[in-house]
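Notes from the 1:1 (GR / supervisor)

We went over the backlog. Supervisor wanted to see one worked example end to end before approving the batch request, so GR pasted a single chain during the call. The sequence is below; no edits were made to it. Supervisor asked that the structure be written out right there so they could see what the output format looks like.
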Amino acid sequence: MHEVVVGTGALTPAEVVAVARYGARVRIDDGALEEIAKSRAAIEALAHADTPHYGVSTGFGALATRHIAPELRAQLQRSLVRSHAAGSGPEVETEVVRALALLRLSTLATGRTGVKVETAQAYADLLNAGITPVVHEYGSLGCSGDLAPLSHVALALMGEGPVRNSAGDLVPAAEALAAADLKPIVLAEKEGLALINGTDGMLGMLVLALADLERLLKTADLAAAMSVEGQLGTDRVFAADLQALRPHPGQAASAANLRAVLADSGIVASHRGPDCNRVQDAYSLRCSPQVHGAARDTYTHAAVVAGRELAAAIDNPVVLPDGRVESNGNFHGAPVGYVLDFLAIVAADLAGISERRTDRFLDVARNHGLNAFLADDPGVDSGHMIAQYTQAAVVSELKRLANPASVDSIPSSAMQEDHVSMGWSAARKLRRSVDGLQRVIAIEILTAARALDLRGPLQPSPATDAVRRALRVHVEGPGTDRHLAPEIEYAVQLVADGTILAAAESVTGPLQ
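Structure output shown during the call:
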């Protein structure tokens, strides 16, 4: 996707990811430019009215009772951005800042905010120039939206504060803008408020997390199938008619993936028959579709919320189509914060069941004939013993990260903003959760592939064999102990870039 057109309608998640993660260019369509101009005319009419209007001729938040004289209003907007650009801590990732800027532009393009056309265009120009304002880890309470993070972006557009240029170098904003032949914006009435009052940061991180989880949910099914196969489990429990007795759509999809991946497995066939007593596998194997399915259904709910939020025009006050300018509470991040927390629970539980499946490979009392810890010479070699420790450490961290942020409101702004969403915090911890889940699944696949090798001469399914062969391009098969950390990182990268999933799908076709 080489260009994303921002109009009065909603951006798609794929468009957000294309700009944020892959650097697609941005263009504002003509219809959006017309709507922006109309709402700006409404704001300019109010700026000359005798009646005070919030954000146009008054102060902000708890200072909203102060009437601002016309000659001070430009200073009011500059002061708002400067004072609210109060973040602290490490820089957040480039893709997050780009998503945040794009989504603010998307709201500006609805024509409901009252900014000048030039101001909206400045966001597109910033993104296209590859300039990334420095935004910090701490500063947002998720209400009124992501104030501090958005303020750091607006500050850069004013030619102030630090940014990363297209080469990734840390430079002053004025220098980066000049190098890209861009001019700093000069804010007029209402504009400062319009640039900082939205859920764009938490929403951007939600959309990015959903993109990663879409891949990881399928990869988790693949890992589970490899574990069932490598541990001589039964595939009978994944039959469609059994799954249909509990009609959750995510469960059905997960079970279908397990059946597809395990199809034509010589290992599974070797112990399938009337005398097979493997009908009650451990829960971590047998209940994989139920757990993965619940995760999928939660994902679907989060995606619905993200879609609604992408269609929203979040600002306060807003310019309505009939020209009225009204205050509202749409900036509150609760809808987004809740699903961000839900997904952190999903990540923790998916990682937890993956770690339990992995652990079963390593215990001679439960791994059905494999060496202890899959070691070449147990006692001399430790095999994958400590890989499971790494999984356990990550899973423990994910359990802590599953504690919800959205229930932890702290009043601010002299009790004017007395209930906040903490959605930004929920989003930040979800990013860490998704990364951890990816690592845990990768270790399960690494361990399961080693077990499949050790099951020879029995042959795995064509799909799991394709995964094993993709892994073996980078990681040797069973043998004496080697430096394990690089092998784990190879596996993580192959999960992250989709190589592992693509290998399985080259046999099964697209998984659900």
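Supervisor's comment: The mean pLDDT is 94.
Batch request approved.
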